[in-house]
Design goal:
By secondary structure, the protein is an alpha+beta fold. The strands form six sheets. A seven-stranded antiparallel β-sheet has the order 3-2-4-1-10-9-11. A six-stranded antiparallel β-sheet has the order 5-6-7-8-12-13. Strands 17-20-21-22 form a four-stranded parallel β-sheet, with helices on both faces. Strand 5 and strand 6 (102-112) form a beta hairpin. Helix 4 (115-124) crosses helix 5, helix 5 crosses helix 6 and helix 9 (262-276) packs across helix 10 (293-303). The longest helix is centred in the C-terminal third of the chain and has 18 residues, at 455-472.
């Protein structure tokens, strides 16, 4: 399995279209990269909400017969990778309930940092939880609200949670989108004829022929129903903290996220990387597909070194595959990537990727490039070292497992078996996006968190930071002393 951050989740909603569930199905296809564990769709015919969900990919969860039962002009959908809660069907979304406010369905992308506290409080007052997902807390808060209208009950529920959330919700005759006041996770608004569309990324709108209108603003709630579109902004202003890793890795390059082209941002990261960390004597720039392609294009353009696809990705590998009983070196990587020896043999290679998490896969790829005959391998990464876990909806390892947090640059280079290693600076990263430091969350690179996170994690992080400061003052270990961050 590749050594990458796990994608979070993808949400989609459409209001006022006769083929709402079919379009939700297509929209989820476009968002499949954001979650592969489970998928689900709920649809309303104006009276009743019906839903279907299953583990696995979208095309595994739905067929024509399943979708034909999801009748109505309103639909919402979800693809999930669990960041809070176990990987089980019971945790798949949408979450659908019937309560005093009527039938209600919810899809959530993000992570509620105070979900544990709220869950304990709700349970003490008699709430019965069916899942281990933090998203269910929002459903209980909505159902228990004494506010007289659905709109006010949603506002009341959202006002009690902290953290990252882009929500798509549905009542009998409305689809509702909401984004947390800091704007951590993306949420776009579009139109298809008279129907309104809400999605995590604009690529979902492109697939169904919808037109991107704008982003749902941080702290905004949009309500799409028979009366058209309504916007309310019931929450006080907060500092913007959009997730910069959406541009680095998560989003599809053909999407617009936070109002910017992902492709252009990533290509510009590569250009800046070529200026900050040039390789004077290289013959070829090779991206690690697919995540390193845009940055490699920018690096090659700025450096004048030609780019070639020296690694070919097998796009037909499923979520699982059967490993042979005999130990085959690099099997886990080679099943997805294979080197092109005619491009690599005898060459000095600049290998470009978007990030390094644990470093285990990067090391295997470097060695694979060498085994294909490369004379030199220079690793270039289009973001800063990842030193801290995320508490806002991204599944990241604990800090002790992040090689950038536990090892010096020289140690990482030795571990990867690379001739040189350079990361893009934080200034280079934030200078490539509109708004820079003031608009984006960079906690995974800095350890500075814009929203307070759980007490037990805070204590752990403070201890880890202290230990790392001590390590930084120590003498760097040599090649034989470096430990594998996964096993150490």
């Amino acid at each position: 399995m590749f050594d990458k951050f796990r994608e979070e989740c993808g949400v989609f909603g459409i209001s006022g279209h006769p083929e709402a569930s079919n379009l939700a199905y297509l929209g989820l296809h476009a968002l499949q990269h954001r979650g592969q564990e489970s998928s689900g769709i709920a649809a309303s015919d104006g009276i009743r909400i019906r839903h279907s969900k299953a583990m696995g990919y979208v095309n595994e969860a739905f067929n024509g017969q399943t979708l034909s039962r999801l009748e109505g002009h309103f639909a919402i959908g979800h693809v999930r990778y669990s960041t809070a809660g176990e990987s089980r069907l019971i945790n798949a979304q949408p979450i659908v309930i019937d309560c005093v406010h009527g039938p209600f369905a919810l899809c959530h992308n993000g992570n509620l940092v105070n979900a544990g506290e709220l869950r304990e409080e709700l349970a003490q007052h008699g709430a019965i939880f069916q899942t281990t997902s933090d998203s269910e807390v929002l459903v209980h808060l909505f159902a228990r609200s004494s506010e007289p209208t659905v709109e006010k009950a949603i506002v009341h529920a959202i006002s009690q949670v902290r953290g990252a959330f882009s929500l798509v919700m549905m009542t009998r005759d409305q689809v509702i989108g909401a984004r947390d006041p800091h704007g951590f996770r993306p949420l776009a608004l579009g139109q298809l004829d008279d129907a309104w569309v809400i999605a995590s990324e604009t690529c979902a709108m492109d697939l169904i022929g919808a037109t991107y209108v704008r982003d749902v603003e941080p702290g905004e709630i949009v309500i799409a129903g028979p009366q058209g579109l309504k916007s309310i902004k019931p929450f006080p202003a907060a500092s913007q903290s959009q997730c910069v890793f959406e541009h680095v890795y998560f989003a599809r390059p053909d999407s617009y996220v936070f109002g910017e082209s992902v492709n252009e941002v990533r290509t510009n990261l590569g250009r800046r990387l070529a200026v900050e960390a040039p390789v004077e004597t290289a013959d070829v720039v090779v991206p690690i597909p697919d995540s390193g392609v845009c940055a490699a294009i920018g690096f090659a353009e700025k450096s004048g070194i030609p780019m070639r696809m020296g690694l070919i990705r097998n796009h037909y590998v499923g979520r699982t595959f059967i490993e042979p009983e005999q130990s085959i070196r690099h099997f886990g990587v080679r099943v997805k990537l294979n080197p092109v020896k005619s491009i690599l043999k005898g060459k000095r290679v600049v290998l470009v990727d978007d990030s390094i998490v644990r470093g285990t896969t990067s090391r295997k790829i470097v060695r694979m490039i060498r085994s294909a005959g490369a004379e030199e391998v220079h690793m270039r990464i289009s973001c800063p070292p990842t030193i801290s876990p995320c508490f806002y909806g991204v599944d990241t390892p604990r800090r002790a497992e992040l090689i950038g947090a536990t090892h010096s640059l020289e140690e990482i280079q030795q571990y990867l078996d690379a001739d040189s290693l350079s990361y893009l600076s934080l200034e280079g990263l934030t200078g490539s996006v509109t708004g820079g430091h003031s608009a984006y969350c960079t906690s995974c690179y800095t350890g500075n968190y814009p929203v307070e996170f759980p007490r037990n994690e805070a204590a752990y992080l403070q201890l880890a930071l202290k230990l790392n400061e001590n390590n930084d003052r120590s003498t760097p270990r040599g090649r034989t002393g470096i430990k594998d961050p996964v096993t150490s």
